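Hi F.,

I've been meaning to write this up properly since the lab meeting, where we talked about keeping a consistent format for the predictions we share between groups. The idea is simple: the sequence comes first, exactly as it goes in, then the structure tokens exactly as they come out, then a line or two of notes. No screenshots and no reformatting. I'm using this chain as the first example so we have something concrete to point to.
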Amino acid sequence: MAVEVTQNLSQVTISPAGVAGVSGTSGTSGTSGVVDVSIFATTSSFNEFTSSIQSEVNSIKVWTASLELINTIDSELLELYQTTASLNSKTGSYATTGSNTFVGNQTISGSLNVSGSTVQIGNNILTGNTTLSGSINVSGSTTFNGVHTLSGSNTIVGNTIMTGTNTIIGNTEMSGSIDVSGSSNFHNSIFIVTGSQFYTGSSDFKGNQTITGSLNVTGNINVESGSGFYYYGNKLFNRGQFYHTTTQSGSANTAYPFQYNTTDTSVTNGTVYVDNDSRIYVKHSGIYNVQFSAQLHTTANESCDFSVWFSMTGSNIDNSNTDYSIEKVTGGGYAVAALNYLAHIQSGSYIELYYSKTTVNGQIQAKGTQSTPTRPATPSVILTVTQVA
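Output, unedited:
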């Protein structure tokens, strides 16, 4: 078989064997043939070309494997995009159900609404507007900065520091040591304080305050003008002063009420007043100290006895009478009746002082100003009413 290899490697021709000839006689040996070595050089080039093709095939296999990995990545990215799309739909409002444990620092931007029971342990810092509803138990050291609104029942145990403007709405129980620094405004609220309370510095309380137990105050209490103290709903420190500038007289052995025609407005605050010239009314129930002085006199040379007593809303007060006597003196004698009496006066009731005398010449005398030395006028009766409880 003859093999023909041309230099153009793209054409390789292998010729088939020829037809066998008729056997002849053995001839003489011929001369040795010449081997063409060029065919070996061509075979070497072919081997190099074949190796180059194999290298390209190996590259194709590597690239094909990469394509299979890309297909796998594309599939996983598709699942990730689907999950991301689900999370994106929760951007506006996201809620979790069940128990959640957050470890590490958590940053929440925007409004945080917590409903149900919330337990915060350790140091907690709430910054910004925070709305907490439901039952809230705070233990440990807690710092509130900014504006906070607490509604519902709140129990705060331990040391609590509230800085800034704080609004507490609803029933709030605070136990332990509470330090409040800065201005705190309580409007239209009812506070029940149990146990010992200490206030240091200036405190401004507005609205109704209820204190159960003892209140110990060290320092001054300043009640501004127009304000007052109340006892069982009744204003304290009510007072009035009244007198009569003319002589009062009458028949012997007859009961007469002391009359008052002038109110001393310099000391009377309007909560104690006179009606019907003799009846003393109070606007606020309480215990009052009723004190009087009367100028007793008789115009004749004879002795005269006087009796003075108290009456409450038209009825004599038991054991309230006092007797006075003027001895017989030429030209008439003088005596001063003076005493005080504590009476529980209800709003709407009134108290009166009565007198009687044993002679027609007895009187409750008034005098004008006098000279040598200059002296003020002498009212026939002076009455002061001062609330003590």
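Notes:
DSSP finds one helix and 32 strands in the chain.
Residues 154 and 172 are 5 Å apart (CA to CA).

If this format works for you, I'll send the rest the same way.

G.
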